[in-house]
Amino acid sequence: MADMTRFDSEAASAMVKELRVTFGSGKTQSYGWRVSQLESIMKLTDHHQQEIVQALQSDLSKPETEAFVHESLSKT
């Protein structure tokens, strides 16, 4: 099983603070880089679709068809 690191409000606040500093510096990534990252996320979800569906079934009791239609096909 993967290591599950706890992400609490303190960690979230620290991350937001760091991201605001980065954004304020003007050193954010280009539009092309951002599009590339989104495309990579799409590929990742396609590659791990069955695992995502299984997690939705296990965690939220979603039937496979509902999980596939609502979570997988709605990404476009």
Automatic annotation (TrEMBL):
Against PANTHER family, the record matches this protein to: ALDEHYDE DEHYDROGENASE (PTHR43570), ALDEHYDE DEHYDROGENASE TYPE III, ISOFORM Q (PTHR43570:SF16)
Protein name (Swiss-Prot/TrEMBL): Aldehyde dehydrogenase family 3 member H1-like isoform X2
GO cellular component terms listed in the entry, alphabetical order:
cytoplasm
MF GO annotations? aldehyde dehydrogenase (NAD+) activity
Biological process (GO) annotations?
A: aldehyde metabolic process
Entry keywords, A to Z? Oxidoreductase
Which species does this protein come from?
Senna tora
